[in-house]
Amino acid sequence: MTDLSAPSPNAPRRERGTAEIVAASLPRRRRKQRLLQAAGIAAIGTAFLVLFILIASLVSTGWQAFRQTHVTLQVYVDPAEIRAERLPRGGFDDVLTAALAELLPGVDLKDRKTRKKVEGILSNGAQFTLRDMVVADPGLIGQTVSLTVPVSDPYDQLAKGLIDRQTPEINRRLKDDEIAMFDQLVAAGVVSRPFNWGLFTNADSRFPELAGLKGALMGSFWALLTCFVIAFPLGIGAAIYLEEFAPRNRFSDFIEVNINNLAAVPSVVFGLLALAVFIGWFGLPRSAPFVGGMTLALMTMPTIIIATRAALKAVPPSIREAALGIGASRQQVVFHHVLPLAMPGILTGTIIGLAQALGETAPLLLIGMNAFITSAPASPFDSATALPTQIFIWADSPERGFVSRTSAAILVLLGFLVVMNAIAIYLRQRFERKW
Amino acid sequence: MTSAAFIVLLAATLTGYWLNRRAAREIRARGERLHSLTTYHGLFAALSVLVPVLVVILAWLLLQGPVIDRIVLSGLPDEAIANLDVNERSLILSEIKSIASGRVFGTPEEWKLAAADRLNDLRNLSGWLMVAVSALLSAVILFVTRRRVSAGFRARDAVERIVSGLMIFCSLVAIFTTIGIVLALVFETSKFLSMVPLTEFLFGLNWEPQIPIREGQIAAEGAFGWVPVLVGTLVITVVALTFAVPVGLFTAIYLNEFASPRLRAVAKPVLEILAGVPTVVYGFFAILVVAPAIRSFGASLGIPVSPNTALAAGGVMGVMLIPFISSFADDALSAVPRALRDGALALGATRAETMLNVLFPAAIPGIVGGVLLAVSRAIGETMIVVMAAGLIAKLTINPLDSVTTITVQIVTLLIGDTSFDNPKTLAAFALGMMLFIVTLLINVLALRIVRKYREIYD
To answer: Which residue among B66, B254, B284 places its CB closest to the CB of A44?
Structure first.
């Protein structure tokens, strides 16, 4: 390059020389350019590939959890085992085992080992389903009811093909006779695999086939609601003050530096703040979505402030000048004219901030939202988990069945994030005005 | 009772608005000229009630718990609690609370039942008092504001003053948060340092935060030297950056200079998706896919790889950082003035030469700022390492080994039962303090570099 720009005293001869030099170096330089482009394509390809593997591995392990293996039993509610005056106690498990044994010819329930294996086919929750039915309608005692209940986790895995029948028996979770029993059930046509509504209507459980996301979804809902109620007004108030009213002085600068720093503080530090201040000093309850929501609000506020300021800045000064010109006060200008015009941008930023808050895990772990809770919270002050902490708990659980539950929970979480971001994009494109 | 207090608040606010607006309208109907619109007269009353009463209710809710606890404790018979330490007292208190809420286990002592009754009585009393106080206060304020309505009253100015104050309060919340973080960390860290000397924490080479279960237990003293934890953090950060920086930079260069608009339209959202994936998902990805893959690859080469290898956690963290670095680099490259690019191209440089010799050097300060922010992110990142990295602090720089990080230790020390008086819990706050300081310094440095560089071209 320098050759080209150098002044040449003997023009005609040098010019030819330069052209030749340039021509000679061109292939090398073009090769270099191709190399750089190849590196760029490889880098982008890596990013694409990783995203593809991420999604593919989650879908391939998670889709199975959206269906659950059930068996349909004709249960004779034996008055010898279940008596109306003893409800809700009674031998519900024995009744179910007897119903199951009728479908398994050649099984001797007197043998304790076999009996144990037959009992193991049904989920632990099956007897409670039956109990609740009978308690709700004691007239069922002495009758035969048709009942569809989930099978326990190993059989669910077997039905989904996740337990390899070729594995040597000693390394397999289900022995040959257990598989034979299940095959008999399949042959009898009582095994079905419907959509797993339990994933959304059950709370957490130690048993994978019963574990659901209801508690986590409600916990996340309360936490996000608290977060929104706190962060939205505070964020907008702060942004309006800083953008429209604050005098340019040291104090305003200090606030701004503070907000920018808060946006970059590691999330786990907010967890420490919440643990020490909200729980330690103020004595608020542990594991409560309300405390989680307050913590998330502190983290989301900088995002909302920054988005709101950008949206306010985008409103052209002519609007403000026109309003001022006909006698509006400065606050009237902002609240009657600028803020409504900036609202789509503010809402977009808020939704994106809430989406980030929905995926935030570490601060919620520190305030105890990773507890094992088997009922959905009824208010923001009850103990609960949240969607991301539930994922963390399930990822930590040793049972095989939780692997696909975890992936399924992640797919649900990602689904919510996609919906929230889609709403944000829609708002931006539908309502944002170009001036 | 709480909802009753809020209903009182809401009712008083609406009544105030309605009363004062009606009064202002009557004045206007008499033919007098008001200074402010009638709405502002109403708003003035509403805000005058809303703000102080809301503050009273919130303060009451916040303070009633500790105050009632103290009264109940002091009301206990002396012989029952005379020689108990803080822990045992709080245990008794929580037992009394669970009795009060109707969960009785076994047969508690008579004085505990009495205390539970007292607790319930006090709670009831406190609830009623709160409602009464807020109702009384609302009534007084309503009366005072109602008397101020007159043609000459500058209601709009008053409302705007209140709104200004509220907005200033909103912006102060950011400062309160920072102060809260600093105070909480300093307070708990100082308690920690009163148990463990500062030099041991800063320079100790062992991190074994176990506490003796019984008095005088040997070999269970617990060691609190943060050096191995710091080294582990740095190992994972380096692994993450060696993956993320080249990929991120080449992505940015290609997208900025060579990519067709169509590729850009696809690649940008893909990078945004990578940036938007929650870190707990990356953590699960690391243990589900990456760690087993690295392990079996190592096994096929005959290299022993730890199941919690730093490579898996660091690599996945690198993926998380790619969009971060590429977007910073893209912005920095785009901010280089067009004249520089046009000048280089006009001199006959290829596009690659323009990029590598002109644009990239000009953008380096911005890129360095971005990489520094990525470093601070990697140090503070929690979920990926909590799920994929190890728990035991080993002083090693081998990325195939299992290492632990500051954030992993904070989370593992604080998960489960936490009481604020043993070094194990407080050590987490000391680590949090170091984490806060380190990331703050890096952030300030990075922002300064980015800003300074921006000024050159603006």
So the answer is: B254
